[in-house]
DNA sequence: CAGCTAAGTATACGCCCGTTTACATCCAGA
DNA sequence: TCTGGATGTAAACGGGCGTATACTTAGCTG
């Protein structure tokens, strides 16, 4: 028998929600799916998180930022960003936060959460790391290209980029990052 | 009294659907909203189009391509594309097809329609117009940047680009368009 | 070991969705 | 003018959703 442990159950729900939201987006995931995946009862979602939207908020807020990719030596940033973006052409993004965000936009009840998180956890840190003139505008543009690549992959299917394409992408990001 | 005219009613439904889908995306629009906006009865959506998904398909298929922007002299294409993209930073895209597509992705029942339309009405014509090596890859990248900019505008709000930003965007598209 | 509290469960509620059905109304052709 | 098929309407159906409620049960505490 499963032992009763509020914290553990809460965590299972959170983990299941993170996975599912990332994979299918906010609206496609039902609280019943989450509960089943977490091997918990549906009512516990409401009990522990208040509502589905709040659970989503907690998932998204709990994700680490994207420092791992965007951090590091600014000199080679374009190339690293380009390579990371290139993998986005044929693979789901590693970062659950990006997945969740790009798949859940447009839903009124979580739009505010998404907006806040995209600004505070991605664009703002990136802008700070970039520095220089128009840092925020550049960060915004880089973010846009990232999300767009993900959208296109999702829409028309994966695409394995050639070396030449990664080069082109690098050049694109260099231009996007130019102050 | 409203005269009975199957074609006219069908057209009103189609127009209402086009507007609403473009504005709110597939899932946010209900058939009741469409019927009300068209001043018609809900049941007629099913009667005239079969289903909501098929109505969406007809809307998207009926949209003109994006030749108006992407057509014209290839020499100045980057600049024109950049300027068009720049307006996307603070304005809804003029093209209803792009609006509908970028707002309705991820819904299983219309994914196939979207995929087909994005390929055949946007990326393919653009690739043909671009010509040169890796035309499809370049078209894909340009499309991605377009969609990404729209996504970011929708997520974090509109942003009026400066002249310098349009220049940067131009440079970005030049790189994206480079064979 | 009894009992109470916290954890978990089963179920139902109310809502909105897309779709279907049964019916009302209009109007062209006889 | 009568009538039957086309057009439009109202209402309901069935299902899924998020959420709320009443209940059961496990496990600690005295």
Helix percent band of chain A: over 70%
Total DSSP E strands of chain A: 0
**Tell me about the biggest sheet of chain A?**
none
Range of strand content of chain A: under 5%
Distance between the termini of chain A: 60 Å
The low-confidence runs of chain A, each spanning 5 or more residues with pLDDT under 50, are none
- Element pattern of chain A in H and E: HHHHHHHHHH
Q: What characteristic shape of chain A results from the CA principal axes?
A: elongated
Q: Label the structural class of chain A.
A: mainly alpha
Oligomeric status: homodimer
Indicate the mean pLDDT of chain A.
Answer: 87
Q: Can you describe what's shown?
A:
The structure is a homodimer of 179-residue chains. In chain A, helix 1 crosses helix 2, helix 1 packs across helix 4 (52-62) and helix 8 (108-130) packs across helix 9 (135-156). Chain A has helices spanning 6-24, 31-37, 43-49, 52-62, 67-70, 77-90, 96-104, 108-130, 135-156, 163-177. Chain A is elongated. The first copy, chain A, has 179 residues and is mainly α. The mean pLDDT of chain A is 87.
List the helices and strands and how they pair.
The structure is a homodimer of 179-residue chains.
Chain A: H1 6-24, H2 31-37, H3 43-49, H4 52-62, H5 67-70, H6 77-90, H7 96-104, H8 108-130, H9 135-156, H10 163-177
Helix pairs in contact in A: 1-2, 1-4, 1-7, 4-8, 6-9, 6-10, 8-9
Chain A binds a DNA duplex (30 and 30 nucleotides) through residues 1-6, 9, 30-32, 40-47, 51-52.
Short description:
Two copies of one chain form a homodimer. Chain A is an all-alpha fold. Helix content of chain A is 73%, strand content 0%.
